[in-house]
Design goal:
Blueprint: E1 7-12, H1 16-27, E2 32-38, H2 41-51, E3 55-59, H3 67-77, E4 82-86, H4 90-101, E5 106-109, H5 119-135, H6 142-146, E6 171-176, H7 180-189, E7 197-202, H8 209-219, E8 223-226, E9 237-240, E10 246-252, E11 255-261, H9 273-283, E12 288-292, H10 301-309, E13 313-317, H11 327-333, E14 339-341, H12 346-355
Parallel strand pairs: 1-2, 1-3, 3-4, 4-5, 6-7, 6-12, 7-9, 8-9, 12-13, 13-14
Antiparallel strand pairs: 10-11
Family: Belongs to the CheB family.
InterPro entries: CheB-like (IPR008248), CheB_C (IPR035909), CheY-like_superfamily (IPR011006), Sig_transdc_resp-reg_Me-estase (IPR000673), Sig_transdc_resp-reg_receiver (IPR001789)
GO molecular function: phosphorelay response regulator activity; protein-glutamate methylesterase activity; protein-glutamine glutaminase activity
């Protein structure tokens, strides 16, 4: 996109009130132009052809065709940046994660139309995510490109053969933001069931982190859970920071444990990748290995640099496979990465680093 041209947005939502609200919010943002709105996917399909928008906002539940079916068709036939507008419910969280798997760049929670307070914070989040989406690298997900219409999802994960519930003297730390739910999944799917314990900070709001962990638990060969304060970090397990909580690694004698806190936001985030990585420096030192994956901004870059400086093997995802090369790109600029790798090679590098 040209820096001089506004980001052209098409809003797709069955609620006239939501369409009006999103149009007003985005219409006031500098550098963004709402070119149209559609009440359902069929109208949206025609407007995409006529208006050629740069970014789509897409409701999950709509009449005539649900948002996931429309997104699946769109990403197979005309890949483009999509930001999902999702309700904060267990069902909404699961459907939103499916949308990210299908190629949506990001999501925002549906605005609470009866609550004016906090609307500006919602507006700031929406505008920021539209801008990130406009710059994102979007392509047809491999699963859609390879899967025939009506086909089932990916193959089942390998069986879990964890020899015992032992603690780990090595640990793997992973941080990510925009595009990270799918990037993390790809890394975890390539890790064996006896891998060292994994701690994860993904920028994700409350209500979605548990669904994300449950989804990873079903789709990978690891035992994945939303971290709880005091959880023992064990081999073959991965622990996801809960939304709105910092996750830190700590020692309890010879064991690693998870510690949660709601201390101040760091780099405007809670959970923050920097908070996690710095705790790994303190608790594990060179017994760790770490990767910084796709995401907007710089959170995690400094923490990765601190890990690198004490001799930890650190990995940054490369630009070509990142949805947004903000966080890993910043880490590379700071000399924080031992290796810069495409996403499919990161799991192997983390395992080698954990054995070093």
């Amino acid at each position: 996109m040209s820096l001089n041209k506004p980001i052209r947005v098409l809003i797709v939502d069955d609620s006239a009130l939501v369409r009006k609200l999103l149009t007003e919010i985005l219409g006031q943002a500098k550098g963004i132009e709402v070119v149209g709105a559609a009440p359902d996917p069929y109208v949206a399909r025609d407007k995409i052809k006529a208006l050629d928008p740069d970014v789509l906002t897409l409701d999950v539940e709509m009449p005539r065709m649900d948002g996931l079916t429309f997104l699946r068709n769109l990403m197979r036939l005309r890949p483009m940046p999509v930001v999902m507008v999702s309700s904060l419910t267990a069902k909404g969280a699961e459907v939103t994660l499916q949308a990210l798997e299908l190629g949506a760049v990001d999501f925002v929670r549906k605005p609470e139309l009866d609550v004016i307070h906090g609307l500006q914070a919602y507006a700031d989040e929406l505008v920021a995510k539209i801008r990130v989406a406009a710059a994102a690298r979007v392509k047809t997900p491999a699963s859609l490109a390879a899967r025939p219409p009506g086909g089932q999802g990916s193959t089942a994960p390998p069986p879990r053969k964890i020899q015992s519930f032992r603690t780990t003297d090595r640990v793997i730390a992973i941080g990510a933001s925009t595009g990270g739910t799918e990037a993390i999944k790809e890394v975890l799917m390539l890790l064996p069931p006896d891998t060292p314990g994994v701690v994860i900070a993904q920028h994700i709001p409350p209500g979605f982190s548990a669904a994300f962990a449950e989804r990873m638990n079903r789709q990978t060969g690891l035992v994945v859970k939303e971290a709880a304060d005091g959880d023992r970090v064990m081999a073959g397990h991965a622990y996801v920071a809960p939304g709105d909580y910092h996750l830190q690694l700590a020692r309890d004698g010879a064991r690693y444990v998870c510690r949660l806190s709601q201390s101040e936001h760091v780099n405007r985030h809670r959970p923050s990748v920097d908070v996690l990585f710095r705790s790994v420096v303190r608790a594990a030192g060179t017994n760790a290995t770490a990767a910084l994956l796709t995401g907007m901004g710089a959170d995690g870059a400094e923490g990765l640099r601190e890990l690198h400086e004490i001799g930890v093997h650190t990995v940054a995802q490369d630009e070509a496979t990142s949805v947004v090369w903000g966080m890993p790109g910043e880490a590379v600029k700071r000399g924080a990465a031992s290796e810069v790798l495409p996403l499919p090679k990161i799991a192997e590098a983390l395992l080698k680093g954990a054995k070093a």
